[in-house]
Design brief:
- It is built from four helices and eleven strands.
- The chain has helices at 3-10, 70-82, 134-139, 189-204; strands at residues 24-35, 38-46, 57-58, 61-63, 89-94, 98-99, 104-113, 126-133, 143-149, 173-182, 185-188.
- Strands 1, 2, 3, 4, 5, 6, 7 and 8 form an eight-stranded mixed sheet that branches. It has a three-stranded antiparallel sheet with strand order 9-10-11.
- β6 and β7 (104-113) form a beta hairpin.
């Protein structure tokens, strides 16, 4: 192989996320609804019978199936969890996706549910649904706390192969964790992060009311 062959091999290549094949990919939808002519955001409370995060507030979403694109997955999961036809989930647009340190990629979307009255939550996954006016989140900032991630090498790690050995100055990472309090519920974690990003987008475009 010569250098020209290498150039031809890489010509026109579209870059992606390194190691993305090993990442688990999820899609979620931030649902917008109209309640008495006012824009609300719809939330789910996960069923208490769920194995992961029972009772927590979330947006509809789930794992992207093989051969499925992220937007299709977000719409499908919303349809299954809220018991509505996919055709009632309209005006779907992508938000910024997130790559976590835990081997997952999250693809958030925002979309509109055209008929709030047609919602029949899937009891196996959804304990309840509730809505909060969009204006509430524009007027109320979330509480913010820091989470610090530490590096902890496994037993047998070859410290002798790196300069500094056991005293190597590892880079540490800090992440902001957001908490909203609405309707007697606590909204935090991934849901609060997507919500904060969405509100910031609206603020950037001066959509205040």
């Amino acid at each position: 192989m010569n250098i020209n062959q290498i150039s031809k091999t890489l010509l026109g290549r579209t870059p992606s996320i390194l190691g993305h094949e090993q990442f688990i990919k999820f899609a979620v939808l931030l649902p917008l609804v109209e309640v008495e002519d006012e824009v609300h955001i719809l939330f789910e409370v996960r069923s208490l019978t769920m194995r992961r995060q029972p009772g927590e507030v979330c947006f509809p979403g789930g794992k992207i199936e093989k051969g499925e694109n992220p937007q299709k997955a977000a719409v499908r999961e919303t349809s299954e969890e809220l018991g509505i036809p996919e055709g009632e989930i309209i005006d779907v647009f992508p938000l910024d996706y997130m790559v976590s340190a835990f081997g997952t990629i999250i693809y958030p979307f925002v979309g509109r549910i055209s008929n709030l009255n047609s919602i029949i939550p899937n009891e196996a996954e959804v304990g309840e649904v509730f809505t909060v006016p969009l204006s509430f989140f524009k007027k109320n900032q979330p509480d913010s706390y820091k989470i610090n991630f530490q590096v902890e090498p496994e037993d047998g790690f070859p410290f002798d192969l790196i300069i500094g050995g056991e005293n190597y100055n590892w880079q540490t990472r800090t992440m902001d964790e957001y908490f909203y309090h609405a309707n007697g519920k606590v909204i935090w974690g991934l849901t609060a992060r997507v919500l904060t990003h969405f509100i910031e987008l609206l603020e950037q475009h001066k959509l205040r009311e």
